[in-house]
């Protein structure tokens, strides 16, 4: 399913074949947590801005509208009218970050809904059942997300629990994929590496889950408060133990600079709410750096957001107009800004793939990494 086309030092150029289409890697997955991109974008918009993979969340869709509703509507692809690959996050992170009251047991997690307080149980089998109802292309294993920093003893116990849960996830998804009424009998499973910032725990856990021969592997538990140097160190520590013939996914990361640095360290898949969330508040990513649309200097600026951008927003609207929309609190401001930021991320990934194809990734990275991280 995954073909490693070319390797430039640790950086990888690949192709991942799925039942819903081919994914060219490295790739950024656009986050539609509740089956929608915040900022009023549709699946048709995602196609126009070059999105390859949409990401939705098990926890949120289980609570609302309910995974059984999505199943009865033909699965997430038909529900959203999106025909390319979808990855569903397992819900583990949301259980641990949103549920104020939770009780972690070997069988799973008991918690209260952040919406209405009702009592819910989710374990590996339940997460797989929900994701099977959603019919996503790739299901993520149910894992425990620990706080950072975390005591080493608890981090060890947690990472080993995640391994045991992963084994149960694999067994349950294998069973679900054989059922006659399964929405997507070709649903794939990615496992998640945990272990906090402890090198030995990360390595041991990665070695254990690599033995399970999964469809892909993710590094979780990062971008949650540690420094960027710590994050890059964890990637460098884990990468040698990740299977070469399977895609690698760095969960919840990150800025354009983070992506360039992580690609250089061997990562293939990325996701982050940052481009859409920041756009909704007027922060714009461009080829010249990061813009704040509330700045008065854009009040009479006729230029597009990015003079080097070919997105629908930059082709049709000026900085002055978009700043006016933000000041007037018009919903269109968020929509136009989100379109641009997601196009920028998807186009950055295209540029990265082209640079890898042409054996010039280092020069490409060096030419833009400082620029992309600076504030204009």
Weakly predicted, low-confidence segments = none
Counted by DSSP, the helix tally is: 15
Question: Number of domains in the coordinates?
Answer: 2
Q: List the quaternary state of the chains.
A: single chain
Average per-residue pLDDT, rounded, comes to 96
CATH names the topology of the largest domain as TIM Barrel
Judging by the overall fold, what is the CATH architecture of the largest domain? Alpha-Beta Barrel
The dominant shape is globular
Helix content: 40-55%
- Overall CATH class of the largest domain: Alpha Beta
Binned strand content: 15-25%
Rg, rounded, reads: 20 Å
Pathway: tRNA modification; tRNA-queuosine biosynthesis
Region (RNA binding): 252-258
EC number: 2.4.2.29
Catalytic activity: 7-aminomethyl-7-carbaguanine + guanosine(34) in tRNA = 7-aminomethyl-7-carbaguanosine(34) in tRNA + guanine
Give structural notes.
The protein is built from 15 helices and 16 strands. The protein has 376 residues and is an alpha/beta fold. It has two domains: 2-272, Queuine tRNA-ribosyltransferase-like (TIM Barrel), CATH 3.20.20.105; 282-372, no CATH class. A hairpin with a 4-residue loop joins strand 7 (102-104) and strand 8. Helix 6 (124-134) packs across helix 7 (152-176), helix 13 (319-327) packs across helix 14 and helix 14 (331-357) packs antiparallel against helix 15 (361-372). Keywords: Glycosyltransferase, Metal-binding, Queuosine biosynthesis, Transferase, tRNA processing, Zinc. The active site is at residues 89, 271.
